[in-house]
Amino acid sequence: MIFPALTWILLLLSAALCAVGFYKFVYFAAVGNGLAAAGLGLCTLTVALSRGRISLVLVLSCLLLLAYGLFQGGFTALAEMLRTRNRNVMKTEAENDTPLYVPCVLWLAVSLASVLQISPLWYRVSAGVGKDGVFSWVSLIVMAGGLAIIVLAQRQGNKQRQEDPSLPPMQGLYNWVRCPSQLGRLIFWTGVLLGGISVLSGAQWITALLGYASAVFLALRSAFRQDRRDRKKYSYLPEYREYAEDTHILIPLSMPKNVEWEEEEDKTE
Predict the structure, then answer these.
(1) Are 35 and 107 in contact (CB under 8 A)?
(2) CA 224 to chain CA centroid, nearest Å
(3) Are 139 and 57 in contact (CB under 8 A)?
(4) Which of 31, 103, 125, 268 is deepest in the core (most CB within 10 A)?
(5) Torsion angle of the four alpha carbons 252, 255, 260, 266, in this order, in degrees rounded to the nearest 10
(6) What is the CA angle 183-186-192, rounded to 5?
(7) pLDDT tens figures, 206-260
(8) How far is CA 104 from the centre of its chain?
């Protein structure tokens, strides 16, 4: 069954949480997707408990999804609110001039994508969970590892910015990749997908892979946006240029692509 019973509840919940994007356009993919992950993880766990179809790994997986969503959505919202307060502006002119159908389409797309992303867990609940197999444990470990990278990257980044606000984070996990938080997101959602291997069948694979593809797209989009902002902001620093040219955006130990630099005004004046 492609859409098991009660899937409509997930869709409604996801739509309600992703509606935060109507407050600020950028919140759809950033905050809304994170909050939806948290809400859907809690909802999946509740349904599993009510049906008695529960296992240790499934409980822990849902709790990891809840923690990921709260951290990802909450941290992003806080960062965006701080930027908004500093700029003393609520919406950009581009947002004000955007036709109403654009945010509506984006809202529906992100709401659906959020449900597809957690579908491997939802299919496990719908199929009835027996013993925790090898893939279930591997999934849990990968999810936990991805979340740990996200949390550690944010902590290291904040510490380095406090120590020297004039420089971007370049130590710790940032010494391996320029966007470690997004690498953690990729690892986390890979773990979610692995958790469905033992139960997915037929067209369910299409649903799960579409959800995984959307999670990868959002992570890559966020990484490239952050990297573009950093290159624009810190391009005048020789140490950052050297760092960026020697460090890949997302793939550790791989050769970084040639970095294109924009000519910026001299910020040292």
Answers:
(1) no
(2) 13
(3) yes
(4) 31
(5) 60
(6) 145
(7) 999 999 999 999 999 989 988 988 988 898 889 998 998 889 998 887 666 666 6
(8) 21
